[in-house]
Amino acid sequence: MTAVDDAVAVIRGVRIAGPGREHLIDDEPVDIHLEGDRIVDIAPTGALPARGAILEGDGAWVVPGMWDSHVHMLQWSLAAEREQLGGASSASEAAARMSTVAALADGRRIGTGFRDALWPDDPSLAVLDAATSGVPTYLVNADVHSVWLNTAALRREGFASPDGMLREEDAFEISQRLNAVDPLHGDRAVATAGRAAVARGVTGFVDFDMAWNADAWARRAASGFRSQRVEFAVYPADLARAIAAGLRTGDALGDGAGLVRVGSLKVITDGSLGTRTAACTHPYPEDDTDRGVLNVSPAELVDLLTEATGAGLAAAMHAIGDRAVSSALDAVTTTGATGTIEHAQLVRHADIARIARLGLAASVQPQHALDDRDLVDGYWAAQTSLGYPMASLLRAGVELRLGSDAPVSPLDPWQAMAAAVHRTDDDREPWHLEEGLTIDKAIAASVRGAVRPGERADLVVCGADPRSTPAPTLGSMPVLATVLAGNLMHLA
């Protein structure tokens, strides 16, 4: 019987549901023959002799290995140790819940996932202090662009804030400090999260942790991390270090397996919708001067992209508001940079076509559209650009890549695809279904290959046909097996 970690020679008796099925004349079961890390043949079941370990498909459906194109892997992994505040309906409730949370070994109480933009009351220092006393307490916003601290935490970190809220660069600094756990502790958490992800069919992800990721991933690879392919980002603070180390986008890290590769320079050009800092053309309600913030000026962005492009690094540009997207596209036009627009949650109509003409991919997170739909109807009611476009990007010829932005939403490609296709995750009507994707397009935007000879043997065996399942089933798709580079990594 084939077991986890075995090299698979044949996946027998399966139907192909993702890219690659267009080459088959019908939906009858086939055998997928593997040799090493490649697919070498696909034939009707039993037509070719089976040699080596066989993974029985029993008529199940196969898609290429899934990718999450935007993850903060360490922060997502550590979220399991933190108080989950996504269900908190007010600042008072969130503060009260933190009062009973046990402090971690370093003496901090940490909560994560709150959405204060939806609360009836405002976060305040007085409310959090009253509930948490002298224990340093930190609440990280779901969008990670703001953090709510009590007086003890502010004093410990050397910050001051009249309401306890730190935003943008200050918030990122706090998150980095909270994530700076013992490397072995962090690596164990990442390994656990990797195993959970491979059980959902994830064979690759792009890691945007705010850290020097080259050393972290070299260490994890050397310690045996093999559950996914990884592309890791570099941040501007480490750009000179990356160039000095000779890092170039696409290069394999020296782990011997080629699973870990250098990704892009990540530049956070603006804020977020939840923190009301996304840089927009039109002002936010109730303040004609509030158009969000550009964390990186247009001139600075040109300088960064010029340096990165000359050194062989692509760019991944966080741009949520339409003003930030335009600034990023202007910089790419000037520098000839390649890479991605990350998020693209509000995009001018003319910029949809510009993204395509510049050859950039759009890395988007479909679940954000559902999580933010109530905020959009309030904060962005006067904006005239397109909100959370996906279908429009595809029609313009833009390559679309789906992801989660975990921990902002769960690292689960099936949930992302369900959000992209059905545009609702509750009993409300779909939200702007005109921007939804077909299931075939959603699968294509969630993978990096196809089920055909010559392609990588990164494959997922599904317990239902993704192409004909309703929203709840798609979002919780049963994953029977996951194969990475020809090796069985998960078996249900």
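the 2nd protein, sequnce then structure:
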Amino acid sequence: MTDESSAFTPPHPGAERARRDHTALFRITERHADTDERRRRHGNAYVPEPYEAVSLVLALAVGAAEPAPGEEPVDHADLVAALTLVPRVRADVDTLEAGLLSLARDRGMTWQEIAFGLGLGSAQAARQRFERVSGRTVPAAD
């Protein structure tokens, strides 16, 4: 494909989203997590957060992370433990997303801007997502 014809080819949505993800992560890292101290200020110094624990087990199990010398390989119980944490990770992400969506609206962002940030196709989809996520994060009545 020539450069001329690529100007008329729609961008690949997955590639565009990956580029935006990378840019977003780089921006937040550069502005708020550019030192070891700043990166560690949000986590627990003694126990990994649930997401970190699940990610670590997965990375070690599939070979994406190298085990430390003498570290035991991931076993059945480790996988069960990681699976046990998945609902907690999902709930944490829902709480984060609901908080960000509320903050965005409180700061005057339009549903269309929010939809763009989330990679959704419409303002209506963003509003529906907010309703779903907020509904999952409301504490149950006793």
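The chain has seven helices and no strands. Helices lie at 3-6, 13-32, 36-40, 50-62, 76-106, 111-118, 123-137.
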